[in-house]
Amino acid sequence: MNNQKLKVGVIQQSCNNKQQDNHQSTEKQIRKLADDGVELILLQELHSGLYFCQTENTDHFDQAETLDGPSAVFFSQLAFELNIVLVISIFEKRSAGLYHNTALVIDKQQGVVGKYRKMHIPDDPGFYEKFYFTPGDHQDPFLPIQTSVGKLGVLICWDQWYPEAARLMALKGAEILLYPTAIGWDLNDDKQEQQRQLNAWKIIQQSHAVANGIVVVVANRVGFEKSEAALNDNDGISFWGNSFICGPQGELLVQADDNSKMTISCEIDINKSEQVRRIWPFLRDRRIDAYDDLSKRFRD
Amino acid sequence: MNNQKLKVGVIQQSCNNKQQDNHQSTEKQIRKLADDGVELILLQELHSGLYFCQTENTDHFDQAETLDGPSAVFFSQLAFELNIVLVISIFEKRSAGLYHNTALVIDKQQGVVGKYRKMHIPDDPGFYEKFYFTPGDHQDPFLPIQTSVGKLGVLICWDQWYPEAARLMALKGAEILLYPTAIGWDLNDDKQEQQRQLNAWKIIQQSHAVANGIVVVVANRVGFEKSEAALNDNDGISFWGNSFICGPQGELLVQADDNSKMTISCEIDINKSEQVRRIWPFLRDRRIDAYDDLSKRFRD
Prior knowledge:
globular; 15 strands; 300 residues; alpha/beta; 6 helices; Nitrilase/N-carbamoyl-D-aminoacid amidohydrolase
């Protein structure tokens, strides 16, 4: 078996409410990673601004942009110049009154080569995403995107809790799973609850690596963003960072901390999946004759 | 919400080739746990003997027993006397030439109230289970078993690697997932590989707790069993123990070590699932309109 080495990087940022500021600081980190030989870079969810879904406010739709809007243009130029693959995240305006939470894959000289519209949309206090984002309606759902560095299974944040999504990407030949996310603590929760939540979030994403014998790359936001509806100083989200890259047995290769703007990167070997799946051939033994009820809401 | 407390125990054992010996030592541990107020006890996979699947040997079919054979009788008497729920594991003879790897659920005074025949059957060097076990052919697959202490989603060993199995149990109302297993290290692997395998095994099972907001109970075998086909002293399986119980966020509640015959137990609250699923309502947002391909072998 041949090795197929690839240097992968992740940018973990804090954002403000000015797209240009955010793009500039992202650019600086992208250039640094590219200088280090990183060929594939994942940005966090909605990295062009604040996480605006903490409240339901129609004004925030002003921030949405089209698939060929300023973010796509800006990062395509950068990918072109640096000859890298970038996975970016935008608040997409598809039409008046129709918006998505969308990831774009930009491949070196080729520009945008694919998009993924978030399929699973959360809605709970502080994360009012169902107000803003129509769930993805891809004709053929959970399709990995072919790039010059491999077939990328891009999923977004809340998707991370669904083994179904990871599996469908793997079954379609994804070679790397990538999760741009924006998740954090409610500082009104106690420390034990915060720790349980962080651990659960790491476990579920590492488990997609294990179940599918595949590399997983996760970019999360960092820093505290106060809610527009805050009644006290703690009301907001303390984004917990912890961006990471793990190998096809779920083993952590590199991991960010919970409070720094930083980058992480490491070399991965896409062909390691072949080796891991030979010793643990889970795909061989799936009981596809017995899985029909996975398409049910509940088996009642 | 009411609490619904339940004390759960797990027995992590080494075995020899004499069923009576093994049953006696299991009985001793069961009595100890029952004395401590444990109401639900999980035994490890194939706890009546050695893990015989290290080679393919037709003589081993002599060890198989019927659903009402000596193991069912022995443990039913014990469950009756101690007024507890027991999940046991047998090498089941269903007919001449037709054998299963089967778990039985024994409920206090009621005797055996349900069975589960392992659905996903491994086959790799040292684990030649496809030779011995016909995969489960339940009419309605992945059905939890109702008992006086709750609805038990019993799965067995290799099943643990499949998020599909855990999900189907949860969708049918399982309140606890239970995994009797027999997994260990090949001492010819290096320490890093051994650690990756153990961690992967913990992660994937904790992830079923996370994905489904449900308690997971795992019993694993411990100790080294030399292969009948050993060419050197290392040829065999060093079962890695690490039996554990985790809560519905995947948080470890109690965990055994990797080399001791021991019991673990703790109190769980089945209603915690309700609370956890309210803050992380993953079942609400499954994209059942987009999951059809989970019933395909591969999406090619």
